[in-house]
Amino acid sequence: RQHGEQAARHIHAHLDLMCSGDKMSRDLLRRRAAQFLPVFERYCPHLVDEMRGLGEGAGITFEEALACNIRGELHYAPAPPAHEGCTAFAILPRGASRHRMLIGQNSDMGANVRDLAYVLHLQPTGKPEILTYTFGGMIAYHGFNSFGVSKFENALSGGPHPRFGIPHYPVLRMMYECRNLEEVVAMLKKLPTEYSVNYLMADGQGHIADIESTPDGPQVLHDEGAGYLVHTNHFLSKPYATQENYKKSLPDSFPRLERIRSLVASRFGGIDVSDIKTFLTDHSGPPASICRHEPEMITAASLIAEPSEGILHAAVGHPCQHSYAAYAL
Questions:
Q1: CA–CA separation, 204 vs 278, rounded Å?
Q2: What does the pLDDT read at residue 84?
Q3: Which end of the chain is more exposed for a tag (fewer CB within 10 A), N or C?
């Protein structure tokens, strides 16, 4: 209820955006959302109760609260939107100047979601605390929990065909209920996920991993001794790193990956938060640079986490134009 009350304006605007963008009435949105209820009740019944409270707090129906945590999947698992970018990184403590894990991303999407955003601090009873950048009633998005389990992500195109299953956002929330990456991977192997998406992750035990999650199961990539991982918007795992999938991926994903990799490597061993801020404001190879300024897709938020310190640095909008604020558990 507190979440719904405090974010009511953002939640109502999110619902309006979904209806206008997909040209559907509020009644149709509610009816489509209700068809996902059995999946929620089977795999995350405790979150169903939370979304009832979210709706009560925001003054919306339960089905509308569900819809905020289904979004594009209201159309029954469409392919992940090719118009969303994102450049993500994870750096082990030995690569950082203060020997702390650093992980984060630029979150690239349509400019219309920027004003819906906020940083949410959740304290679920009997579960880890969560600090997450999110928007419009979504119960989890980018961030970390009090065990240091951190999650940032990139859209992927191609791969196994999408199918009806559990929506994306409750999956993210359940990741934050895990204590380490081993538990995250085990959970993903059990859930019927709807479409392919990449998760760049870390935990408080000093591990990083890149998980290319697909409807056929997750593919896990490790740093192989490099001390860091980076990812953009194309598959890197062997089963799916194919020309067929590359043709379906954002063309700029490939140069962005090489650019963020070279920037991290150039400062590895002495990277601090100010270095990361410089990396995330990089404009090499415009218009589709790490800091994006295209009309259809912009860097809507820039995020840097220090999970061992419980700190999330967030700049809403282009990081070259907006300052970062530090939020803490």
A1: 25
A2: 72
A3: N
Give CA–CA dist 132/250, Å, rounded.
Answer: 26
Which residues are CB-contacts of 41 (< 8 A; sequence separation ≥ 6)? 48
Cross-strand pairs, 202? 150, 208
Show the CA angle centred on residue 301, arms to residues 296 and 303, nearest 5°: 145
Write down the pTM of the prediction.
0.95
Closest Cα partner for 81 from 119, 43, 109, 41?
109
- Token digits of residue 130: 């969560």
User: Is residue 122 predicted with pLDDT exceeding 80?
Assistant: yes
pLDDT at position 82 is 46
Q: Which two tokens stand for residue 242?
A: 């194919």
Alpha-carbon distance of 40 to 162, in angstroms, equals 18
**DSSP category for residue 270:** S
Residue count of the chain:
329
